[in-house]
């Protein structure tokens, strides 16, 4: 238990410093996509020692429906979703983003990134990056175009996904 607590403290101390250092350079980051958590959050790996290397990236500029419980298909439990419509739309948004990365090699390009105010994740403009072609697709724009996201810049959430 002491080791886990120590690792958590180190993560909370080192990760913001790492992100601040990266932002100061003004460089874009190319990172692997480990997992699509939901429609606006992606799990990735940084150049830090294990287990400090895993973090999440929150896509700047959008809000997507909240995902249901992992057992939703079997149990119908909504989890963070407020209704069945939101749960179903959240699953579609996640599947759409997974397909975008699958079709393009599972790499993402981060621009204008910073350490998120809620800690534990990076906030960034995120692009699907096809390494072979160099094509960059803005995820926020694609998600909004498909109706899986709405513009969101940190103010009070205004979209009711259940309507």
- The CATH topology name reads OB fold (Dihydrolipoamide Acetyltransferase, E2P)
Can you tell me the CATH architecture? Beta Barrel
Total E-strand runs: 9
Distance between the termini: 45 Å
Strand content is 25-35%
Describe what you observe in this structure.
With 163 residues, the protein is of the alpha+beta class. The protein has a single domain, classed as Beta Barrel (OB fold (Dihydrolipoamide Acetyltransferase, E2P)), CATH 2.40.50.90. It contains 4 helices and 9 strands, in the order αβββββααβββαβ. The N terminus is likely disordered.
Give short descriptive properties of this protein.
alpha+beta; OB fold (Dihydrolipoamide Acetyltransferase, E2P); 7-stranded mixed β-sheet; two-stranded antiparallel sheet; 4 helices; 28% strand
